[in-house]
């Protein structure tokens, strides 16, 4: 559970994630993931859906989503790429948008775009179990199962790799048909379980 102390300022949170508050709070549903009409159209076209509310007031507001674990990410002008389902809350000063991510999204059945969070402030991510933070360097690229991917930041290049072989097709493979390969310098957040993906059915 995330407790946010507010003194007249605002946060943007996943719609319906408020579980309690004290003081005085106002709740307003935002259009297009908080990005207005243009954001609504973009998200419908990209199928990267995100329903967001603005919470503003004085007091403390508690947020949670299905008892998932919460990780706070402090941004100082950087851009964070995150699956929309894994974004719980952001400071109102942070800008959200959508970004093309190549073929990675095609393995998940939720389009080929991901949500971006950019600016200076904190964002709260949710994950099944504590999110594990893995570092990527030029010497050590990283391969991630699409169902375990939560978010990434830094100067990273993504590519989509298929591990499908004849052994996979006859049922003797390792069960990991697709992976995301990250190269460069940055951080990748993964969770200790896998969401259902198209790759999992191959």
Summarize the entry for a quick read.
The chain is mainly beta and 202 residues long. The protein contains 2 helices and 11 strands; from the N terminus they run E-E-H-E-E-E-E-E-E-E-E-H-E. The longest helix is centred in the first third of the chain and has 11 residues, at 36-46.
- Strand-and-helix sequence, N→C? EEHEEEEEEEEHE
Strand content: over 45%
Task: Write the CATH fold name.
Answer: Double-stranded beta-helix
Helix share bin: under 10%
Would you state the CATH class?
Answer: Alpha Beta
Structural category: mainly beta
Global geometry:
elongated
Give start-end ranges of low-pLDDT stretches: 39-48, 103-111, 164-174, 198-202
Second rung of CATH, namely the architecture: 4-Layer Sandwich
The number of helical segments is 2
> What is the count of distinct domains?
1
Number of beta-strand segments:
11
Main sheet makeup: 11 strands, antiparallel
Describe the structure.
This protein is mainly beta. The chain has a single domain (2-191), classed as Double-stranded beta-helix (4-Layer Sandwich). It is built from two helices and eleven strands. It has helices at 36-46, 166-169, and strands at residues 2-14, 18-30, 52-63, 69-82, 87-91, 95-100, 113-127, 132-136, 142-144, 149-162, 178-190. Strands 1, 2, 3, 4, 5, 6, 7, 8, 9, 10 and 11 form an eleven-stranded antiparallel sheet that branches. It is elongated, with a radius of gyration of 18 Å.
């Amino acid at each position: 559970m995330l407790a946010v102390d507010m003194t007249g300022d605002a946060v943007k949170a996943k719609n319906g994630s408020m579980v309690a508050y004290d003081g005085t709070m106002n709740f307003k549903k935002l259009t297009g993931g908080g990005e207005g009409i243009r954001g609504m159209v973009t998200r419908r076209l990209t199928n990267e859906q995100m329903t967001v509310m603005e919470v503003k007031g004085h007091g403390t507001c508690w947020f949670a989503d299905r008892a998932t674990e919460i990780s706070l990410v402090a941004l100082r002008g950087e851009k964070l790429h995150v699956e929309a389902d894994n974004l719980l809350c952001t400071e109102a000063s942070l800008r959200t948008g959508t970004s093309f991510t190549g073929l990675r999204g095609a393995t998940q059945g939720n389009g080929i775009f991901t949500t971006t969070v950019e600016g200076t402030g904190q964002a709260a991510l949710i994950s099944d179990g504590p999110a594990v933070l893995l570092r990527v360097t030029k010497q050590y690229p990283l391969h991630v199962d699409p169902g375990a991917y939560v978010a990434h930041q830094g100067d990273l290049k993504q590519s989509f790799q298929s591990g499908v072989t004849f052994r996979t097709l006859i049922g003797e493979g390792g069960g990991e048909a697709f992976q995301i390969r990250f190269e460069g310098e940055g951080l990748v957040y993964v969770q200790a379980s896998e969401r259902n993906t198209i790759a999992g059915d191959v």
